[in-house]
């Protein structure tokens, strides 16, 4: 049996993966970075692209090297850590953040400008109910993702976005403004942490299982070929995401003269689109956001339902779809601002842990794959990540800063890098002292014990 696929098929799979990552929530962050950073946009976007895009490909490769699922990757630290991390991850990517955020953004940009601002609570409920019902129906059969996302939806919103971007380059709205607030200094690290909010690195862990299932649905059975396709599709996705986010930042950075400063990237995109394309721009950006919202919701709802079916087999995948669809409906109607506020502490906790896991799996053979190193690193990262999450939640920020400001980069939300390295060194010394067994990973992504 020939397990290889022609490039045309790989491209479609790559477009499917790109569509899964590119959501309505994702396209609202780079524009506000551009507006706030102004002439420092490209420095800020360098940091943003590392965490918001570059690490996506590394996460995909790490997933293939770490066993194919986030649970197997995280279990290198400890089985209990794997359960807690995975459950938090899937819930954040599902009903507690991404799906409500995406649905709310679609409503704010695609629906609200058309219907006006009166009785918004009623309109939001009606829209979110219908939109999430549509999401459930599209998620009913995951093997259809390639046809539905790769062949149909991605090209449509890709063309619409391209029209907007080309117009913004051909007739810029204005010049780059002056840096604002936190983008005056510490620019790179500010952009670095803003990349968290795309959640794409976390999404790479979550989408892995459903993506692999879709590939196998095309007749690819060899684990080696599945891994190769995963990486090739990841390259296509990464190129697409870089082009998209840089374009969105450009629109934001050049929009100030035309529309002024805005509170969020959704407003920047909506008003920039109207300025560039006239009345038609409202409908263009609305359709783009609607389509990207569909792809993200379908991918996230399908992934989280598959995961919970696996850990609680007594409840079927389709029943989980309904459960998480209802939960998403409830959280969506809290409103976009509340959703974003509630999510920040969770992201500041999960993102550093995810980045640390990616780094560890790539360095695995250097330190012999000792569990003590995984434990030490994650402990070092986790302590500061918890402190950052507490600060973001408004819990004793002054006290936390006064006690821990001595940690390099702590003020910029990146202190976990230093404590993670310290934890790595301590874990390695303990592992060597205990003569922990070596666990290497070969080129096929398989473990080799006591090598």
UniProtKB/TrEMBL annotation:
Superkingdom as given in the UniProt entry: Bacteria
Source organism (scientific name): Virgibacillus sediminis
Function: Component of the transport system for branched-chain amino acids.
Gene name for this UniProt entry: brnQ
Family: Belongs to the branched chain amino acid transporter family.
One Pfam family here: Branch_AA_trans
InterPro entries reported for this sequence: Brnchd-chn_aa_trnsp_Livcs (IPR004685)
Main location: membrane
Protein name as catalogued: Branched-chain amino acid transport system carrier protein
Membrane spanning stretches: 12-34, 40-61, 81-100, 120-140, 152-174, 194-212, 233-253, 282-308, 320-340, 346-366, 373-393, 413-431
Membrane-related topology note: Multi-pass membrane protein
Keyword Coiled coil in record: no
Lineage: Bacteria, Bacillati, Bacillota, Bacilli, Bacillales
Classification via NCBIfam families: livcs
Compartment list: Cell membrane
Keywords: Amino-acid transport, Cell membrane, Membrane, Transmembrane, Transmembrane helix, Transport
């Amino acid at each position: 049996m020939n397990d290889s696929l022609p490039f045309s098929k790989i491209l479609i799979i790559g477009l499917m993966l790109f569509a899964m990552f590119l959501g309505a929530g994702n396209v609202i962050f780079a524009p506000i970075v551009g507006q706030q950073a102004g002439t420092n946009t490209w420095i800020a976007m360098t940091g943003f692209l590392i965490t918001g895009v570059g690490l996506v490909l590394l996460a995909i490769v790490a997933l293939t090297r770490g066993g194919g699922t986030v649970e197997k990757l995280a279990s290198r630290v400890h089985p209990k850590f794997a359960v807690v991390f995975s459950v938090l991850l899937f819930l954040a990517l599902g009903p507690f953040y991404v799906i409500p955020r995406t649905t709310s953004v679609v409503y704010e940009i695609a629906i609200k400008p058309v219907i006006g601002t009166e009785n918004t609570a009623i309109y939001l409920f009606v829209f979110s109910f219908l939109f999430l019902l549509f999401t459930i129906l599209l998620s009913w059969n995951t093997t259809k993702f390639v046809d539905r996302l790769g062949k149909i939806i991605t090209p449509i919103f890709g063309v619409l976005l391209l029209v907007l971007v080309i117009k913004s380059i051909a007739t810029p709205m204005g010049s780059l403004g002056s840096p604002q607030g936190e983008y005056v200094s510490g620019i790179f690290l500010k952009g670095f942490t803003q990349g968290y909010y795309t959640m794409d690195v976390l999404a790479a862990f979550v989408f892995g299982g459903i993506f692999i299932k879709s590939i196998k649905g095309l007749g690819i059975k060899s684990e080696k070929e599945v891994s190769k396709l995963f990486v090739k599709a990841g390259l296509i996705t990464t190129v697409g995401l870089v082009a998209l986010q840089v374009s969105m930042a450009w629109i934001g950075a050049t929009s100030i003269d035309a529309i002024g400063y805005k509170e969020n990237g959704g407003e920047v995109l909506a008003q920039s689109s109207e300025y560039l394309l006239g009345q038609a721009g409202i409908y263009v950006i609305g359709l783009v956001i609607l389509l990207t919202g569909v792809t993200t919701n379908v991918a996230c709802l399908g992934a989280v339902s598959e995961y919970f079916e696996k850990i609680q087999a007594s409840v079927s995948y389709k029943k989980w779809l309904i459960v998480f669809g209802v939960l998403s409906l409830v959280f969506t109607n809290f409103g976009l601002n509340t959703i974003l506020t509630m999510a920040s502490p969770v992201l500041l906790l999960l993102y550093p842990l995810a980045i640390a896991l990616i780094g560890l799996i790539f360095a695995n053979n250097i330190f012999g794959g000792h569990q003590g190193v995984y434990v030490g690193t994650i402990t070092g990262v986790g302590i500061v990540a918890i402190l950052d999450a507490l600060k973001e939640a408004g819990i004793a920020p002054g006290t936390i800063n006064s006690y821990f400001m001595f940690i390099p980069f702590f003020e910029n939300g990146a202190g976990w890098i230093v404590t993670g390295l310290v934890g790595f060194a301590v874990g390695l010394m303990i592992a060597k002292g205990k003569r922990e067994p070596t666990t290497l990973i070969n080129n096929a992504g398989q473990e080799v014990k006591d090598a």
